[in-house]
Amino acid sequence: MEANPALPSHNDGTTVGLFWVSADGVYVGTPATAPAPCVVLEASGPRVTGPHAHDWAWSGLAGVEVTEVPVRSTVRRWTTHAVTFAAAALDAWVPSSPTEMTVSITTPEGTVLTPVHSSAAVAYSALEVDLSRRLIGRFLRGTATPAVMTEWWVRTRPTRILRSREREALLKAWLASD
Questions:
Q1: 5 against 20, higher pLDDT
Q2: Residues with Cβ < 8 Å from 23, sequence gap 6 or more?
């Protein structure tokens, strides 16, 4: 990917699992600044923006997978948070570039690979990744729609960054709805 995205403001959306949820839509990872590509999940199907823009209907796809996802164990995640907090307190913290993930969209014509940036501050919990992948599977089967996520954002507009347990609970609720 050529350019790092400018991270969106928390007022514009929030991370829930592998997704950035906002009133504008549901993105896999962080919304990117043009011309960098991003993947938007819409009720009708996924849409890739950027130089190789394309969209598909969920019903016409064989699969959508997100790979190279940064996952940390609970112990490692807490250690990283502690080190980051200590570095920030000492004014020694410098944010790093977001981790790049790959979204693979499998169509009858072949597989389209699109790089996206992780929206996780450090990494995702293993449960968040599993629940996010299950939710994408429900979109593919037509038993759920990303609209439930944007409706949640419009309704609640959280004023703070959600903790991993809150994000996991939301993903579980979305898996149970529709």
A1: 20
A2: 13, 150, 153, 154
Nearest to 19 by CA among 163, 159, 133: 133
Phi, psi of 47 (to 5 degrees): -130, 130
Report cis status (omega within 30 of 0) of the bond before 35.
yes
SS3 (DSSP) at 9: coil
Token pair of 117 as six digits? 């940036």
Beta-carbon contacts of 53 under 8 Å, excluding residues fewer than 6 positions away, are: 37, 47
| Spatial separation of the C-alpha atoms in residues 121 and 162, rounded to whole Å | 11
pLDDT digits (tens, 9 = 90+) for 51-104: 989 999 999 999 999 999 999 875 544 555 555 455 445 555 445 567 899 999
Beta carbons of 161 and 77 less than 8 angstroms apart: no
What is the token pair recorded at 173? Answer: 């609720």
For residue 106, what is the DSSP state?
Answer: E
**What is the chain's Cα-based Rg?**
16
Closest CA to 61 of 139, 171, 145: 139
Q: Where are the beta strands (DSSP E) in 13-77?
A: 14-16, 19-22, 25-28, 38-41, 46-49, 54-55, 63-67
